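dumping this here before i forget
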Amino acid sequence: MAFISKITSNGALWIIIALLLMLQKYRVLGVAIIIALGFVFIIGDQGLKPNVARLRPFVDFSKCNGAVRICTTKSYKLFIPIRS
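structure:
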């Protein structure tokens, strides 16, 4: 079960499925999956996630100050500068 969790974390399972589909008569579907994975990587992982920069559940909130919750343990590079 840990192996399945490991290969699904980076989308490797979808890449394997797409490559297998491209070998058979479902080539168009395999190409569509590869294109969709590319859009997800560009828009989601490279575009939205760094720009939203929300705090993750593993952040220790006891080291945060104020209602804005600006943590002092990690430095976050935000897209929009925040005035204090």
